[in-house]
Write a structure and sequence with these properties.
Length: 97
């Protein structure tokens, strides 16, 4: 699976034991390697939130913005809730279906 953010195509990959040093991560975006990785053991909903979270990092980075983890986490959780609980409306708004 791939997602395009700005002009960059990111590969989305599952990972086992995704870490930053000793810290276990749910996900990470690598701008140099053009990948978004998520922890394989996550539940479906946590995986979706994690992918939204990493995509938001990509969007903000592409736009040259400044942010912190708490902002990204807040927006990721909010977007996940709105998108999943309003699927029909989102399809109509985004794709006219």
């Amino acid at each position: 699976m791939k997602v395009k953010i700005g002009a960059v195509q990111f590969n989305i990959v599952e990972a086992d034991d995704l870490r930053d040093g000793a810290v276990l991560l749910n996900g990470v975006i690598k701008f140099e390697g053009e990948t978004i990785s998520y922890e394989k053991a996550l539940s479906i909903d946590k995986r979706k939130i994690t992918l939204i979270h990493e995509i938001l990092h990509g969007i903000v980075n592409h736009a040259g913005g400044v942010h912190d983890e708490s902002q990204i986490e807040m927006y990721a959780n909010g977007l996940h809730q709105v998108l999943t609980e309003n699927e029909g409306a989102m399809k109509e708004i985004l794709w006219g279906k």
